[in-house]
UniProtKB/TrEMBL annotation:
The gene coding this protein: mdh
Pfam family, one: Ldh_1_N
Native source species: Sphingomonas qomolangmaensis
Binding-site residues, substrate: R83, R89, N121, R152
InterPro entries membership: L-lactate/malate_DH, Lactate/malate_DH_C, Lactate/malate_DH_N, Lactate_DH/Glyco_Ohase_4_C, Malate_DH_type3, NAD(P)-bd_dom_sf
Catalysis: reaction(s): (S)-malate + NAD(+) = oxaloacetate + NADH + H(+)
EC numbers on record: 1.1.1.37
UniProt name for this protein: Malate dehydrogenase
Chain positions recorded as NAD(+) binding sites: G10, A11, G12, M13, I14, G15, D34, N96, I119, T120, N121
Length: 320
């Protein structure tokens, strides 16, 4: 059986880390595409030279032409500019919208059957725009946000409870970052929901509230520390989990930005919800019942995404 082909559109910090992880896991052969000349070629060569040491057989290639992504099984999009300190995700809207147009057209022309994972921020609007520009089926285009937000939440919870991250599950809905909605009742340690753990004296509501807040501003905290860029290790790991579920038909249930057609009362918008990812892309959108608080927070989150999409339509009339 021929190897799978993974195209990484954008070979910056996240793109390079995606290539490293995909190669180490031997998910397939990898093409790093970027508009910057030399950057994808340099990273591909550097990573290839690690293969004898690590023992992986994935082939890596750097490219500046969309021809090289031809017939990719998966495209992971990080092309665009990253958030700088003091810059909100929304400031990125205009520049990255232009990038999504070029990338969407490139994917449509050369890899129309691929499963596309968008990472570029502001995520919920960019994944919507990328789908519009590419014209691919909605179930083949998703955004990576919830896996990262949940991972951040899980990490902080594991620290709080002093247990293995492996035993912590977190449930996050809504938009990426500031407007994400953690659903505490469905977040557990080995199946024990957080409210029960609070009753058992493992933590307090105040401490959990602080963890939720820290998770919401998790991206900003890292930007503040790095000063010259944004997070890349955890975002790359999160997108690879999604790609792996598609490539291996694992049917994992993961929180992702998916296109809603009435679920959760939302129509024609990408919002973070639990989905099942398998060989057909988004195979199921999981609709859970929300309590009043979560519902109110979810609605705020949806409004924020709606505003971004309206702004996109204002900038790019072709999207209206
Ligand atoms: N086509 C292809 N690549 C492009 C294009 C384009 N039109 N425009 C920019 N790029 C490339 C840049 O040359 C750069 O190498 O995208 C890459 C982005 O890499 P970084 O600046 O290192 O950004 P990174 O940290 O990888 O984040 C990428 O993901 O989480 C989001 O906010 C983040 O939107 C940002 C994206």
């Amino acid at each position: 059986m021929a190897r799978k082909k993974i195209a990484l559109i954008g070979a910056g910090m996240i793109g390079g880390t995606l290539a490293h992880l995909a190669a180490m896991k031997e998910l397939g052969d990898i093409v790093l595409f970027d508009v910057a000349e030399g950057l994808p070629q340099g990273k591909a060569l550097d990573l290839s030279q690690s293969s004898p040491v690590e023992g992986f057989d994935s082939k890596l290639k750097g490219a500046n032409s969309y021809e090289d992504i031809t017939d990719a099984d998966v495209c992971i999009v990080t092309a665009g500019i990253a958030r700088k300190p003091g810059m909100s995700r929304d400031d990125l809207l205009k520049t990255n919208l232009g990038v999504m147009k070029a990338v969407g057209e490139g994917i449509a022309a050369h890899a129309p059957n691929s499963f596309v994972i968008c990472i570029t921020n502001p995520l919920d609007a960019m994944v919507w725009a990328l789908r519009e520009f590419s014209g691919l089926p909605h179930q083949k285009v998703v955004g990576m946000a919830g896996v990262l937000d949940s991972a951040r939440f899980q990490h902080f919870l594991a620290e709080e409870f002093d247990v293995s991250v492996q035993d912590v599950t977190a449930f996050v809905l809504g938009g990426h970052g500031d407007t994400m909605v953690p659903v505490i009742e469905y977040s557990t340690v080995a199946g024990i929901p957080i409210p029960d753990l609070i009753k058992m004296g493992w933590s307090t509501q105040e401490r959990i509230d602080a963890i939720v807040q820290r998770t919401r501003s998790g991206g900003g905290e890292i930007v503040g520390l790095l000063k010259t860029g944004s997070a890349y290790y955890a975002p790359a790991s999160s997108a690879i989990a999604m790609a792996e579920s598609f490539l291996k038909d694992k049917k994992r249930l993961l929180p992702c930005a998916a296109h809603l057609t009435g679920q959760y009362g939302v129509d024609n918008l990408y919002v973070g919800v639990p989905i099942v990812i398998g060989a057909n892309g988004v195979e199921r959108i999981v609709e859970i019942e929300l309590n009043e608080t979560a519902r109110a927070n979810f609605d705020v989150s949806v409004e924020a995404v709606k505003e971004l999409v309206v702004a996109c339509k204002g900038i790019e009339p072709a999207l209206a």
